[in-house]
Amino acid sequence: MADLKLTDIGKSYGEVSILEGINLDIKAGELIVFVGPSGCGKSTLLRMIAGLERISAGELQIDGTVVNDVPPAQRGIAMVFQSYALYPHMTVRDNMAFALKIAKKTPQEIEKAVDNAARILQLTPYLDRLPKALSGGQRQRVAIGRAIVRDPKVYLFDEPLSNLDAALRVATRIEIAQLKEAMPDRTMIYVTHDQVEAMTLASRIVVLANRGISQVGTPLDLYQRPENEFVAQFIGSPSMNLLAGEITGTGEMTTVKLDGGGVGQVAVATTEADMGLKVNLGVRPEDLAPTEGQGLYTGTVDIVEALGEVTLLYFEPQGDHHALIAKLSGIHADLRHGTVTLTADPEKLHLFHQGRSLRAR
Ligand SMILES: Nc1ncnc2c1ncn2[C@@H]1O[C@H](COP(=O)(O)OP(=O)(O)O)[C@@H](O)[C@H]1O
Ligand SMILES: [Mg+2]
Asked: Which of 87, 125, 213, 360 could lock 227 by a disulfide, CB 3.0 to 4.6 Å apart?
């Protein structure tokens, strides 16, 4: 069991600040996912927790003890990297046993730990193979096995699936979820840039951006109540559409006149002081539906992507992106070049002013 507490953690390389003011409480048994764009500092934060990188500012506590200056091996943490880095000349069994041999465990203890890890990871039939005789997914499981045998209080994963092909990534993702379930009291921190991994694995997601934490919440919190435009557009695929407009009616229900001509009713409470406020109305592609009446948006379909279970409609190209994307369930291949008006449930809409959600005020 291990709680972690990050207080005002910062990291800089010389003059360059990478992370600032990271405050986070992680409860024992949580599976926390750090997600964010490439280069935002996810690995750096994880490596500071592991003790592989010096903490420039702030305090890291594990189970109430400050560990800033505690060496990695004494933090009760094991880390699994993107590159599995197995010893190529050692069998699966010896790869998993290696750290325990170094730690001078008895042969009996080692055998028990390796057999247990192999069972959890379904590697028992492969214990006497060399890494080269394994698939990528199996090699990654051996790398996880090396962490399990050490029985750490905290597991750290840095993009463990990114070297796997798409099908294996899904399978291994599910295995990691099952692994977590088999070890309910172990704390796990998992880094990824893949929002689907974040959504499917996390008990809570920490979105990192601009040197800090953009939002922390359960996957559905972030999906349903993003506090800012960054999180709104980072979580969900395709990204949430943002339509510029102005508040023309306030109250429990807010009216927004959109620059494109549409009008939105949004179930976000505003006050008279908000009249005339410039806002972005946020609507997810999957929340849009065609209407015969007045809507949020009317446009000509530029591209149709019929995926079978859903159809993506791309409206009005604007340089490298489209003005709006709608995701309709079912097949609508006949809408290409057609003009469509779209509407959405007021409860599903979001309002942002200067990048911040009006719901989060
Ligand atoms: N040793 C280093 N010296 C200077 N800058 C570094 C060093 N390591 C990482 N960085 C910078 O820190 C930032 C965050 O890197 P990283 O934590 O690897 O991002 P992520 O894992 O989110 O992709 C990047 O801009 C990277 O260039
Ligand atoms: Mg990284």
From this structure: 360
C-alpha of residue 47 to centroid of ligand 2, in Å? 10
SS3 at position 91: coil
pLDDT of residue 352: 98
What is the per-residue burial (b if ≥16 Cβ within 10 Å, else e) of 167-185? ebbeebbebbeebbeeeee
Peptide bond into 37 cis (omega under 30): no
Is the CB of 44 inside a 6 Å radius of any atom of ligand 1? Answer: yes
Ligand 1 binding pocket includes 258 (Cβ within 6 Å): no
The CATH class, in words, for 241-360 is mainly beta
pTM exceeding 0.70: yes
Q: Give domain limits for the chain.
A: 4-234, 241-360
Q: Whose structure tokens read 């990695």?
A: 72
**Residue 326 in contact with residue 342, Cβ under 8 Å?**
yes
Low-confidence ranges of the chain (pLDDT < 70): 1
